[in-house]
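debug: dumping io for the single-chain case to check the tokenizer round-trip. Nothing else runs in this session.
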Amino acid sequence: MIERIGFATELAAHAERHGPVTIGLAGAGQMGTDIVVQAALMQGLRVGAIAAGSPRRPMEAVAMAGHSHDHGVLASSPQAVDAAIEAGRIAVTDDLAVLCAAGRIDVIVDATGSPEAGAFLAMEAIRNGKHIVMLNVEADITIGRLLARKAREAGVVYTGSAGDEPAATLELVAFAQSLGMEVISAGKGKNNPLRHDAVPAEYEAEAAARNMNARMLVEFVDGSKTMVEMTAIANCTGLTPDVPGMHGPEATLDNLAQVLCAAEDGGILSRAGCVDFTIGKGVAPGVFCIVKPRHPRAIERMADLKVGPGPCFALVRPFHLTSLETPLSAARAVLHRRPDMVPLDRPVAECGAVAKRDLKRGERLGRIGEAEYRGFAMTAPDAVSRQALPIGLVERAKVLRPIAKGELLTRANCAPDENLLVTRLRDELDRADRGLGAEAVPA
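debug: decoded output
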């Protein structure tokens, strides 16, 4: 028998003393289903309730996790959710507010992927004294700084999710910093072939074969997800895009450290301290951190240890387990009250949007990953000077004047929907930044 070690031991001990960490999950799509299945395989942790628009997919996820046909219980009130959890079952509701108000839930996980749903869910979780794990990077890059601030004031944890590329990259950055190495750049290998003009209609068959939504697949293919994720890394570290949209070279695992390093060391970056990605072979589905040791002896040792030729080296995590790792962030929030990933309390980067086709005056725009726009990472000062509309505010935005394919969506040519909570929260964040005199805030 192999003994438990490390965090597995802590999780088991906590469950013995207090019962399992209980997750309230929002969303039962691909990621949400993964979390339900994964939690059922772990000791010391459980999914207590699932919120989704209809009960079909939550019930399918419960069955896929190996539970009996009556394990999922419909619940329309916090009390009903608590009763289901107390009976050892999983409550299923269509109301995010009910999920957050249930007393038996310790931590909320957002697997919705919607900036608007994420805004509402996070605010409700914080209001009810619940920790919140955001497996919703789109919401995080739009209003994460404000949500983290509100969570701190309420005494709860706001965190991004372990397993997603941003948090996996931060692990490498933290490791390098703890060793006193200079961080030159950090980012990911892009998983899908890059095609900026991709639209869902062209990817229905591939999406079905991969058991995912075609819109979600296109968000990966057209580069939007990469831009969103690299913006999230920037906002947590202070690393910034070297150029708008980043370089995205065809660097491979063998030459990554010689490409995504500063020009003074033979690379393509104008300076150290950048976030970027590669479309070259051998890096995806991994993440990387390019480092430069600060002493010749350390450079010599790393070269001797076959990390690379130097003077810059690639620290690579060759995998990320996405939603399968998410329960770990939930558990750490409860056990240690520690986030795995939280944005800095200052503006660093912005993910704007570029038109994928000509947009007509009066159009109402759809979701990320559809046919109208794609993500575009920028520094925060650049985004402000160009009045870039954050990508998390583009859904349901109204086009004010014709926008040509390839043109940046701005506050001058596109108006966000002021009825959305995410829009109002972003306005609150921008007003607070202006009050502090922060650079990179739209007037």
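debug: round-trip ok. The chain has a mean pLDDT of 96.
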